[in-house]
Each structure stands twice: as structure tokens, then as C-alpha cells.
Amino acid sequence: MSRAVAALRGVGHGFGSGPRRRTVLRGIDLDLRAGEFVALTGPSGSGKTTLLTLLGALRVPEAGRVCLLGQDMAGLDAAGLAALRRRIGFVFQRHHLLRSLSVLENVEAALHALPGAEPRRDRAAALAMLEAVGLGGRGAEPTARLSGGEQQRVAVARALVRRPALVLADEPTASLDGGTGRAVVALLADLARSQGCAVVMGTHDERCLDLVTRRLHMEDGMLRQTEQAA
Amino acid sequence: MRPALRFAALLAFRQLRHRALASGAALAGVAVAVMLMLVQVAFRNGLYDSALALPRALAADIVLVSPGYRALTFSPPWLPRAALRDAAGMPGVAETAALYAYSGQVRSRETGGNLSVWLLGLDPASRVLDLPEVAAAQRLLSVPDSALLDRLSRQEFRAVLARFAAEGLARLPLYTPAADLAPVLQVRGLFALGPSFTIDGTLLVSDLTLHAALGVPLDRVSIGLVRLRPGADAGLVAAALAARVEGRARVLTRDAFLAEERGFYARRTPIGLIFNTGLLVGVAVGVVFILQVLNGLVDANLPEYAVLLAQGYRPAFLAAVVAQAAVAVALLTYPLALGLALLVTRVAATATRLPLGLHGADMAAVLALSLGMAAAAAGLAALRLRRADPLELFA
Ligand SMILES: Nc1ncnc2c1ncn2[C@@H]1O[C@H](COP(=O)(O)OP(=O)(O)OP(=O)(O)O)[C@@H](O)[C@H]1O
Ligand SMILES: [Mg+2]
């Protein structure tokens, strides 16, 4: 059995109070293991993004326990959560690259925040990662000169260059056309497998589901079915 | 945290450059505000330097003034000449001299009106003022009623100067209430002292002419000058002298005297206040413009800052980016501000004849001030960083 990356027990979360109160997650139990690639599907508003932000240590649940990378989130302050996030990679719907930096500098930027950052070694790691996403030799270019698919591949490189234990992707293909989107997810799956990290991807994109190892379906804030992919 | 800080500097610089056009107007505003501060300092220097021109020209290592003396303005209170004679006998003292300073009026032949002048009296045989032309021309003053005119006197004296240039002599009737006795001064030479903001024109005459013209007693000295033998310690002699003339005169070394003169203009006149107010306005305007640059920077980059927070960068890192950007704004606009200030100062100096100028220390002080302005603006702009929220990056 591979290493546990995240464990959620009875997690509930909601927004607002009084008559405007809206419960978004209820009684979520979930175990994530290293090497898993999980697709999180479900209708709009079912709570996928909310669950991802909990897994990303970007918010703390109102109810239940979240244990991330061996740490109980309940005991962590802002600095502790930030430290936790340094071991997590994010890929967003839009690439959200830093416009004023080059492609290579964007990937390196993910490393400067890490403890023990070392410029020369970080540059080598960033170059290798760009090579791995098929953008070797384009490091010096401004990000604006890349196509949408290429930009999203830089975002994947940025998430994975820090060798995270967990990668969270929210609709990473939604801004791309079908073929390009699938290629990005395939790349993400490949790299995650070779690094042995867990990925959770919120998605509406049916075309990518064959690339994952597990599918979770959310409905009304609850994980309705858990099916193991072939 | 070293690589992270270096990254903060890189990011700040790149993000600033990315928006250079968008923030061009505000950057120009910063440069203009700093330029105004520099010009302000140059004007202050000019005012102080012109006010201190005569005190600086005194040929003295030690100066004796009346106990009630405040500054070398029109007619300072007098001290008894006997005090100066006492000084002459002290060990370490080489020689002494006296300066008489009185305000007066001369009749303008051109307008028929009166011009106020500063009448400085000295013994033509002794060294009183270290001004190049005075040394050569002061012997002319031994002829009764002779005078030297400051060629840098204000515009009103232009006609007198023209007459002197044409004829080698210009007659200047002194105005005294007992009009029939009024002597007529003969301008026989020129010297250069420069106008100050309180004085229109300066005339140099012999002590005897001054006595004859205004009836002032010559045992009442305005400033006593003491020159020391080589190797004598000014501080020690001044202390001994002070004990000797106790109650009759105040004794100051040259440096203490000049510092006191400067202090008078800084504290007892509105110059210091006006100058400081102007500087403060420059600081305020500068902070506003720097803040505008920084706020624009933060607003344009909020999603990028949110990404950095998601990656585990701390809010303090973002504050460092803003601080670095602020420092960059201050440093990059400064050379432009300095260049403009030097240009404006040169033009103004030609127009006003005031010795306007900037010293290295002034430039450094204003640079330090603009870095302070940058720090203040960065502090304010950092408040805006709270709006950077990683949750907004999600779909
Ligand atoms: N900050 C918030 N304040 C109030 N309500 C919120 C907030 N964030 C999310 N919600 C609500 O929580 C519910 C779940 O939102 P969430 O974004 O998790 O859904 P989702 O499954 O990701 O939807 P989509 O597929 O459209 O992205 C929605 O009804 C949403 O309106
Ligand atoms: Mg969503």
C-alpha cells in the first residue's frame, strides 16, 4: 500500500450564515495515496472547487478533520498552512503565469519559496522540467509569446518542478480546445506517475477521464460514487 | 530566504518595467517632486550663502561682538573699542581690526528718491575684508568722502554703476535728516560682495568718512576682528579673551561665529520655516506619486500575487516586492530629478545673482528623503496586498 497523502474524515463546509447559509460539503470521507490520479467530477456548484481548496490548505474546514501530508490542518496557523502549500502544486483553469517573467523564470519562481533554495540547482531543475513538458529551448521567451496549450504546460511544469507530494488541478483543460486539453492532462498524468505524486483534478471534461486512476463524483456536496478506473 | 529576496527584487523590477508606460505620468510626478525638493535646497543654500557672504569675508580668526549682538544685519549693537585694544595685547594675537556697519540712505539722481544702503566702515590701512578687489582698492578710501560700491548691488544701482563705468567716478549724495550738512560720497572703485535678501546695495567707506558723514563715534565698533599668530589655538585664545573682556563683548571663534550667523537665518527668520514647508510639500507630493505607481502595480498584479501565495510565499514576501519596487522608483527617478534641478538652479542663479547651488551632502540628503518617501508609500501600498486571494484563482 502506497504512502497516504491526504485523509479526510467527516469533512463539512459551508458559506454564509442565517437564512443565507449554504452547506457546500457534507460528510466527506476521502483517502488519497501517492501515485493516484483522481478525477473529481460533478455538476456545477456541487462543491468540487471547495474540496480542492481544502486539499490545497487554502482554507480550513468548518467540520471534520483534514490530515494533509501527515499534518492535521486544525493545528496550523497561517504560516503553517503556507509551509504546507510549499509541498503542493497548483494548476488553475487559466495558466496564471507571471507576465513580466520569462518562461524559465516562471518555473524557477516555484522553487525560490522552498526552504534550502539554491539558484544554480534550481535553474537546472527548471530547465529539466521545461524539457520534460516539451518546451526545452523556449525558456528565455516571454510567456505571452506561447500558445494557450504551451502556457498551460508551463503551468504544469511550474507545479511539478518542486516535486510536490500532491498536485491540485481545477478545470485545467477548460480554457483549451479538446485535443490540446487532453495532451496537457496526459502530460500531467505522465509526470505525476514518474514523480510518484498524487493528483486531484476537478473537471467537466469527459475526454480526459480515461487518463485517471480513480473517479470521484460529487453531487450536492457529497461524494456519491467512488469507482476504480480500469 | 536569500534567493526569495533576490527574486522579490527581480519581480519588482520586471513588474515595474512591464508597466513603465502605464505609470509614466506618475513616475514623472515623482521626478518633479524630488526636483522641487532639490531646487528648494539650492535656494536655501543661496539665501544662506548670500547672507553669510560678509561674515565669511571678515579677515578674522576670532570675532568680538556686542553682548546683545544677534547677526550681522544693518546696524548691529556696538562694543567698546577698548575691548579690542585689550585683545591686541593677548598672547597669540597677531593683530586686530574693526568693522563699522550702519544702514544709511543715498539719493538717487535718476529717480530723486532714496536707496537704502549698507555703509561699511574700515581703516583703509588695515586688513578687514578678504575680498580680492577690496585689498587693491581700499587705499583709495583714505581720500575723504571716497567710497567703493558693490558691483553686485541690486538693479536700482545700475545707473550709478553706468556712470562710474563712463566717468571713472560717480557722485552719491548721502541722505541725512540734517540735509544741508549731507556729504556727497564719491564712488572711486568697485568690489564684489553680492546682494542678500535684506540689503539693496553696499558701500565701503573709511572709518573717518563714516564718522564725518553719520557722526558715529569710532570707539563704538560693530565687529572686532582678531587675527592670530601662526600656531595659536583659536579656542584657547578665545577662552582667555572672553575672560578678559567679560561683560563688554562676546568672543567667538570664526567657526562658531559663522555657525551662529547661519543659525540666526535658519531659526530667527522665516527662511528656515519657508524652506522646510516647501520641502514638506515636496515630500507629500512625492509620496502621493510613488503611491500611485505602487497602487497601480499592485492592482495590475493581484492575480500574480495570489499565485505566489498559493505557492507558499508569505504575505511578507509580497510586501518585500512592493518595497523593492518603491526603492527602484526612488532610485530610478532621482538622476532625472537631479539633472532637472541642476538645470533649473543654473538658470535661476543667473537671473537672481544669488549663489544658488547644491553640495554633495544636499544631494545625498534629498536622496535619503526620497527613499524615506518610498518607504512611506510602500507601507501604504502594502495594505492593498490583502486583496490578493488565491481562492480567486479557482474556477
Ligand atoms: N466564497 C464563497 N462564498 C459563498 N458561496 C460560495 C463561495 N465559494 C463557493 N460558494 C458556493 O458553493 C457552492 C459550490 O461551489 P464550488 O465552486 O465548490 O462548485 P464547483 O463544483 O467547483 O462548481 P463548478 O463546476 O461550477 O466550478 C456553489 O453554490 C457556490 O456558489
Ligand atoms: Mg469549480
Question: In words, what does this structure look like?
Answer:
- The complex is a heterodimer of chains A (230) and B (395).
- By secondary structure, chain A is α/β, with parallel strands linked by helices.
- Chain A has a domain at 99-162.
- In chain A, 31% of the residues lie in helices and 28% in strands.
- Chain A has six helices and ten strands.
- Chain A has helices at 48-55, 78-85, 103-112, 119-132, 148-160, 178-195, and strands spanning 4-15, 22-33, 37-41, 63-68, 71-72, 88-91, 166-170, 198-202, 214-219, 222-228.
- Chain A is globular, with a radius of gyration of 17 Å.
- Chain A starts with a strand and ends with a strand.
- Chain B is α+β, with helices and mostly antiparallel strands and 395 residues long.
- Chain B folds into two domains: 3-51 and 270-394, no CATH class; 67-248, no CATH class.
- Chain B has helices spanning 2-18, 24-51, 53-57, 81-88, 132-137, 158-167, 207-214, 234-245, 254-268, 270-310, 315-352, 360-383, and strands spanning 62-65, 79-80, 93-107, 114-122, 146-150, 170-175, 184-191, 201-206, 220-221, 223-228, 250-253.
- In chain B, the strands form two sheets. Chain B has a six-stranded mixed barrel with strand order 3-4-8-5-7-6. In chain B, strands 2-9 form a two-stranded antiparallel ribbon.
- In chain B, a hairpin with an 8-residue loop joins strand 6 (170-175) and strand 7.
- Chain B is elongated and about 100 Å long.
- Chains A and B meet through helix 1, helix 2 and helix 3 of A and helix 1 and helix 10 of B.
- Bound molecules: adenosine-5'-triphosphate and magnesium ion.
- Adenosine-5'-triphosphate is lined by residues 15-16, 22, 24, 42, 44-50 of chain A.
- Chain B: Keywords: Cell membrane, Membrane, Transmembrane, Transmembrane helix, Transport.
- Chain B: The chain crosses the membrane at residues 20-41, 53-72, 271-297, 317-343, 364-385.
- Chain B: This is ABC3 transporter permease C-terminal domain-containing protein.
- Chain B: It holds the Pfam family FtsX.
- Chain B: It is found in: Cell membrane.
